[in-house]
Write a structure and sequence with these properties.
Largest sheet: 2 strands, antiparallel
Distance between the termini: 76 Å
Number of helices: 20
Helix content: 55-70%
Number of strands: 4
Oligomer: single chain
Shape: globular
Strand content: under 5%
Strand order of the largest sheet: 1-2
Radius of gyration: 24 Å
Amino acid sequence: MHTNIGKYDSFLSSLCEPSSSTWTEAQESALLEPYTYITAVPGKKVTDKFVEGFNLWLNVPQDKLSVIKRVVGLLHNVSLLVDDIEDDSELRRGIPVAHKIYGVPRTINTAKYVYFIAYQELSALRPTVRRRARASSAGPEIMLWDDNPATEKPDVPQRIISDHDLDLVMNGMSSIAIVARSPNVKTRIAELISLHHGQGLDILWRDTLRCPTEDEYVQMVKDKTGGLLRIAVKLMMAFATTHSNVQVSLMHDYVPLSDLIGIYYQIRDDYMNLQSDQYTVNKGFAEDLSEGKFSFPIVHGILEQPENQLLINVLQKRPKTPTLKHHAIEYLRDITKSFDYTLAVLTKLEQQARGELERLGGNPMLSALLDKLHVDA
């Protein structure tokens, strides 16, 4: 019983010794299993196509682009793990959601872990220009790295977002403000915080059964869906080899187009959730109604006839069977004409996105993406 107790005699000393990590590949694989489970089934790859499309303009070096795509992919997929828990979803990409298999605690821990992996991946994008070396009393010579922004060097083109601004990119400073930053300039809402602001409001409205205004809903979508796309675009702008000079880039700020595409995509997703047979296969029939979600067509339907409590009552019930769902969909289609309204909004947003594509010089890949997302009336 006491055969091993002697190893604790000098335990403190052992903790002071250099040690190699005892973390194994088997442990890593087990910890990531909820994540690898969901990523084993490919999604629509919209974010990949989005990044590749913007890269036609920005020409980010391939090594940097690969890291950016991986970071965005990590953040996107981990958000799905968390969203499915918060929405109590049943299906994702046509298979049971991860937390129904691995449990909520394990899935949450994996999601948090992958967030940190994404930040770790960003280290591959940081500048590695050696500035000077000096001796340290703590040990042998250590290296100091250049921490001055590229904008301060006369031989480096001033970018609208520099590669020294990675934290500012993740912290959400506007692209124009980054150029003009000073010690008194404060960063705006962090992009990752924006994601959680948006998701938080979505949940708050659902759980308190409060219908947002249409403007509130659009702002929520800009935070929630647009945040991830802004991270992608701003990281790409930081490493662009074309349109990187400030004077040129002020005419080529891609963030508003990114926001427009994000809002368009989410409103389209809301429409398809209630109207598409393919969405029924992948996520279940009219899953937004089962989740009690105030999606764009539902918000319009409630606000169009605020005296009628039908939709509010259906959302409160969070129906799992088709009967109530069919009735709510018929009401949205025939009484409030909410699907017609949603399609009209999508048409306007798509037209503006295509107009901005042309203003920025044209982009066949992003045009093709809009073609694929187009919904016929």
